[in-house]
Amino acid sequence: MYLETTSPPVIQKKPVRRIILIALALLIVGVLAWMGITSAGNPEPTEQGNGSMSGILDIGILVFREGLECILVLSAITASMMHSEQPYRRPVGAGVVVGFFATLVTWFVAVGIVNDLSQSVDALYIQAGTGLLAIFVLLVVMNWFFHKLYWTGWISLHNRRKRELLKDAEQSSTSKRAVWYGMALLGFTSFYREGVEVVLFLQSYRLKLGGRLVFYGVVLGMFLTGAVAVLTFAAHRKLPYRKMLVLTGVMLGVVLLVMVGEQAQEMQLAHWLPTTPIPWLANVIPAWMGLWFSIFPTVQTLVAQAVAGAVVIGSYFVARQ
Prior knowledge:
Blueprint lengths: L12 H26 L9 H4 L1 H26 L10 H32 L2 H20 L4 H23 L6 H34 L1 H24 L6 H29 L9 H4 L4 H7 L5 H22 L1
Helix pairs in contact: 3-6, 3-7, 3-8, 3-9, 4-7, 5-7, 5-9, 6-7, 7-8, 9-12
């Protein structure tokens, strides 16, 4: 699905793809250069410091995916605001700013709650619990099965509310201030909903990686989101949002499998699950597969990942029907 923004100029598909490919190539080169410099030119993927790079990339993908959804909703809201309705874009933008700061407040509240719990509960239990929450949030974010309710319905709800506000603005019975606040609320909910999902998801990674590496992943995701936002709202370009969301959805599928493997191992360490090793696989699966893809030679972790993969693929085909 393509979504047009305000102005007539339309960027061609090839330049857009070229920009995206160049940005991704520069990102990969930068990551490799950073790993080479920090490891004296000989990066070792089995070291914990470099293994945590997979977590940074996972976080970046999730934030970028949520950012794309937010941009898609905001584009749908503001696309038809032309001429006399154009001033109403300002309150939508103001609502986004308030949503950003509200997300920061929610982050610190969530961190405080998790830290308080960790003082009275075993850290392994907290990590396992937040991991289960993160997997649930990620399944909702992927939204293949609940596509119409989660994605299309969310955009339709905002568009319907926008039309109601603009209709009220034409009537003398409703003040312009009320319409302004209504538009600001649309911008706020569009951003804050995605922000809360990210905050809940990142608690698990914060416990495993620490706040500094989570910050790096968030910055990576915000950089990619910012590039798309500039093309959409500043350059007024038409972008293949549906293809981009499908691509990031596939990448999130890989992230989900990684998280399920990590979660199963954490539940084994917390003695919530038994551990049944597979000796012959221990010689086949290298150590770096465990750090980067959470593939471990145990029955429980592999079965959990197989079930997660079957659920995602099965729900995708069910949604297509």
